[in-house]
C-alpha cells in the first residue's frame, strides 16, 4: 500500500459515509485522485465493496478441504481384514474446515474458502459451518464433483488404524476461482492453507502480494511435499515426523534435525507434532518440546487441526502469552479435541482454555 493510499484509507475509515469530494477536501487531493485510490484499495481488498465495507482488523481466511467425516471406533482391539464391532458417527470435517471451526469457536472472525458438491451433503456441511460461526460466503459449489468424504477407522483407544479420503472436489479451488475471490484473500491478516489444495493453487497463492501471515498444515505424508516450493513464504508450518521427512525427501529420524532443516528452507516457525508426546517447537532462536496435557482420548481425528488453530489464536494474544504459553494453549485445544467424538470439540472456548492455563 502506498503512502497516498494509506492516507485515503485512514480518512475513509474515520468517516465511511463521506463523499469522495468531502474526502478530497479533507486531505487535499482532487476528487479524481480519491476515486482512483479507492478503486485500487478495493482491488487490493482493503475495501470490500460499496459503502466502504472494511474487513475485520484480525480477520483470518482458511483455504482448504471441507468434507463429511465418517468415524468408526471398534469396541476392542482392532483386527485388520475383519469386521470389528463398534460405533459409527457422521460429522463434518476436512483439515481446513476443522481449523476454521476451531478458530471461530475461539472467537476469531473466520472465513473458509472451500469446495462442496451440489448435493445434500454439501448443503448440510455448509449449514453446520454457518452454525459454528464460519463465514461460508466464498464456498465454491461444484456441479462436477460430489462433496468430499473421509472415513476413519479407530481402535478402542481412539487411535487411527486406517482411513480413506475422496477429495476430488478440492481441485476446483483453482487459481482462476481464487482470482475471483482475491479481495477477501488480500484482506486477511492471517491466511491458512492446507495441503489438500493443488500444488498449482498453493504456488499461485504464495506468489500473490499479500500482507497476511501465511501458515500451512501439511495434512499427510502423501500431500505434504506440495508445500516444498512455498516453504520460504511460510510463517508457521505444522507437520509430524513423516510429513517433515516427505517434504525434505529425507529419512532423518531426529525430529530436532528435521525441524531445523525446515527452518533452513525458510519456514519461520515449525510445529512438529509428536502425537501423545506433545509438540516440538522450533524457530531461529529456540527449540524445545512441550508435553501434551493428559487426557482420556476418544478419537485423535482433528487433534492436529486444533493444535494449529490454537497456536494461531494464541499468537494473537501475545505479549500476554509467551511462546511456551502459546504452545500450552494450543496443546490444551488439542487435548480437548482428543476427548471428543467430533473432529472439533463443540465445547472449545478461549476463556475455558485460559482458565486451564492459570491452574
Automatic annotation (TrEMBL):
Domain Carbohydrate kinase PfkB: 58-345
Domain of life: Bacteria
A molecular-function term among this protein's GO annotations: kinase activity
InterPro entries: Carboh/pur_kinase_PfkB_CS, PfkB_dom, Ribo/fructo_kinase, Ribokinase-like, WH-like_DNA-bd_sf, WH_DNA-bd_sf
Keywords of this entry: Kinase, Transferase
GO process terms (BP): phosphate-containing compound metabolic process
Family stated for the protein in its record: Belongs to the carbohydrate kinase PfkB family.
Protein name: Winged helix-turn-helix transcriptional regulator
Amino acid at each position: 500500500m502506498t503512502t497516498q493510499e494509506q492516507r485515503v484509507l485512514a480518512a475513509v475509515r474515520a468517516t465511511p459515509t463521506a463523499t469522495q469530494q468531502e474526502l478530497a477536501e479533507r486531505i487535499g487531493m482532487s476528487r479524481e485522485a480519491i476515486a482512483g485510490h479507492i478503486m485500487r484499495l478495493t482491488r487490493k481488498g482493503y475495501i470490500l465493496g460499496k459503502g466502504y465495507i472494511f474487513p475485520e482488523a484480525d480477520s483470518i481466511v482458511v483455504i482448504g478441504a471441507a468434507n463429511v467425516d465418517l468415524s468408526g471406533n471398534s469396541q476392542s482391539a482392532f483386527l485388520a481384514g475383519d469386521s470389528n464391532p463398534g460405533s459409527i458417527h457422521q460429522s463434518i470435517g476436512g483439515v481446513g474446515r476443522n481449523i476454521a471451526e476451531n478458530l471461530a469457536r475461539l472467537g476469531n472472525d473466520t472465513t473458509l474458502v472451500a469446495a462442496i458438491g451440489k448435493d445434500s451433503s454439501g448443503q448440510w456441511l455448509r449449514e453446520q459451518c454457518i452454525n459454528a460461526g464460519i463465514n461460508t460466503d466464498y464456498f465454491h459449489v461444484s456441479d462436477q464433483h460430489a462433496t468430499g468424504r473421509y472415513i476413519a477407522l479407530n481402535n478402542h483407544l481412539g487411535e487411527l488404524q486406517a482411513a480413506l479420503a475422496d477429495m476430488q472436489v478440492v481441485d476446483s479451488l483453482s487459481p482462476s476461482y481464487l482470482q475471483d475471490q482475491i479481495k477477501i484473500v488480500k484482506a486477511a491478516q492471517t491466511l491458512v492453507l492446507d495441503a489438500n489444495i493443488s500444488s498449482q493453487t498453493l504456488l499461485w497463492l504464495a506468489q500473490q502480494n499479500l500482507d497476511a501471515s501465511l501458515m500451512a498444515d501439511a495434512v499427510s505424508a502423501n500431500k505434504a511435499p506440495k508445500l516444498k516450493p512455498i516453504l520460504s513464504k511460510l510463517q508457521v508450518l505444522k507437520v509430524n515426523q513423516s510429513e517433515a521427512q516427505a517434504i525434505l525427501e529425507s529419512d532423518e529420524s531426529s525430529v530436532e534435525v528435521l525441524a531445523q532443516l525446515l527452518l533452513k528452507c525458510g519456514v519461520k516457525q515449525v510445529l512438529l507434532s509428536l502425537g501423545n508426546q506433545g509438540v516440538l517447537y522450533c524457530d531461529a532462536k529456540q527449540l524445545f518440546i512441550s508435553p501434551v496435557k493428559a487426557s482420556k482420548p476418544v478419537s485423535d481425528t482433528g487433534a492436529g487441526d486444533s493444535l494449529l488453530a490454537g497456536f494461531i489464536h494464541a499468537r494473537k494474544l501475545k505479549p500476554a502469552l509467551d511462546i511456551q504459553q502459546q504452545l500450552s494453549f494450543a496443546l490444551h485445544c488439542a487435548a480437548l479435541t482428543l476427548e471428543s467424538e467430533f473432529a472439533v470439540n463443540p465445547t472449545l472456548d478461549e476463556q475455558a482454555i485460559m482458565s486451564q492455563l492459570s491452574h
